[in-house]
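Regression test case RT-17, inverse folding.

Input:
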């Protein structure tokens, strides 16, 4: 990317960030004044802001309008989800001011705000970018997002209508249970995904770069030294490599699963609570959410039947007869023993079997159990 185009994008981002901060300020002021939900006609205010500030008129109108749409959507969602008596600025999920050094650089353009011509991307405001295409676009894009990563690399992400690529049917079904020791435990031993530990293998290098940054950290009000900027870039590069390794591992495993199985029952696991536990570091390195996301996308792409299963009581139910244990198993106990039918199996394997049963993909293999109802106890 040329220095002229990069400077134009940074200037456009500064204008968009100013518009976002103005939206936050106007919304809080309206809320303080007692207006309903702090509602203000932000779209109409943009015209006044642009007529008042010449430097704002120099940028494209499309990304500024999209900034207001994004703010309105986030503000409406926060008011809908959070009903508390706290001030607006302290409510969870409420849009906050964007600081220049902390906010991620992102610009959104709808169809009227950009065009593709001769392999170049033309954005509103007279910005022209030479794009290095990773692959051809399958259809005309409806929008594009320009963003910069922590290494300073620029990317253009297009939204297109993609067609599915169905795979040949195999007639197989698989249940998947998420965990920490093994990222994914399945009903098929050949498809278990062991913890790759990408972060653990690179932890020493990342710690060394962070110590370099700590020693060279600039004092408040002073510019960062060349050594600090070098150490910061090395640390960002190491983190980027770890993220790409996790994504590559997840995509390859997901591709193998959807290729060999038509029906997939997946635990609808949300690992956010693990961030407050003693397993936080290992759970973050396992990248359960990223792996689950790649599996869902791969199943949608290849037209596979994927069903999300509620994870409640999956460690207490028996995957063979459907009976439920009276007490929850502690994490230290890795073997599940059913008191009703006497089945003994590894804890995670039993949970994967329960996923398959609850999704209704393999109900014939369950004795005296109902996937969607309570377990039927054995008669005395």
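Golden output:
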């Amino acid at each position: 990317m040329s220095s002229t185009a990069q400077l134009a994008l940074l200037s456009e981002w500064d204008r968009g960030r100013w518009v976002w901060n103005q939206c936050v300020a106007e919304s809080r002021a309206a809320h303080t004044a007692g207006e309903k939900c702090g509602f203000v006609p932000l779209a109409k205010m943009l015209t006044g802001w642009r007529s008042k500030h010449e430097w704002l008129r120099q940028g494209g109108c499309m990304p500024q309008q999209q900034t207001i749409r994004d703010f309105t959507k986030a503000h409406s969602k926060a008011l809908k989800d959070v009903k508390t008596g706290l001030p607006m600025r302290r409510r969870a999920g409420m849009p906050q001011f964007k600081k220049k050094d902390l906010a991620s650089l992102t610009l959104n353009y709808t169809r009227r705000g950009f065009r593709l011509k001769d392999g170049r991307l033309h954005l509103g405001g007279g910005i022209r970018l030479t794009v290095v295409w990773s692959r051809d676009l399958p259809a005309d894009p409806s929008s594009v997002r320009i963003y910069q990563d922590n290494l300073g690399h620029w990317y253009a992400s297009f939204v297109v209508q993609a067609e599915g690529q169905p795979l040949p049917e195999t007639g197989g079904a698989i249940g998947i249970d998420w965990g920490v020791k093994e990222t994914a435990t399945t009903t098929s031993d050949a498809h278990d995904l062991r913890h790759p530990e990408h972060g653990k293998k690179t932890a020493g290098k990342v710690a060394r770069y962070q110590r370099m940054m700590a020693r060279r950290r600039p004092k408040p009000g002073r510019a960062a030294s060349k050594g600090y900027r070098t150490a910061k870039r090395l640390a960002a590069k190491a983190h980027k490599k770890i993220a790409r390794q996790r994504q590559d591992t997840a995509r390859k495993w997901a591709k193998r699963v959807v290729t060999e199985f038509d029906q997939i029952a997946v635990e609808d696991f949300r690992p956010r609570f693990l961030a407050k536990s003693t397993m936080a570091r290992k759970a973050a390195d396992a990248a359960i959410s990223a792996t689950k996301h790649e599996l869902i996308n791969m199943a949608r792409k290849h037209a596979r039947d994927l069903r999300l299963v509620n994870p409640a009581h999956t460690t207490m139910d028996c995957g063979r007869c459907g009976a439920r244990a009276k007490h929850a198993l502690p994490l230290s106990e890795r073997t599940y023993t059913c008191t009703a039918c006497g089945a003994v199996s590894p804890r995670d394997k039993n949970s994967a079997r329960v996923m398959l049963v609850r999704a209704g993909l393999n109900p014939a293999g369950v004795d005296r159990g109902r996937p969607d109802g309570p377990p039927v106890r054995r008669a005395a």
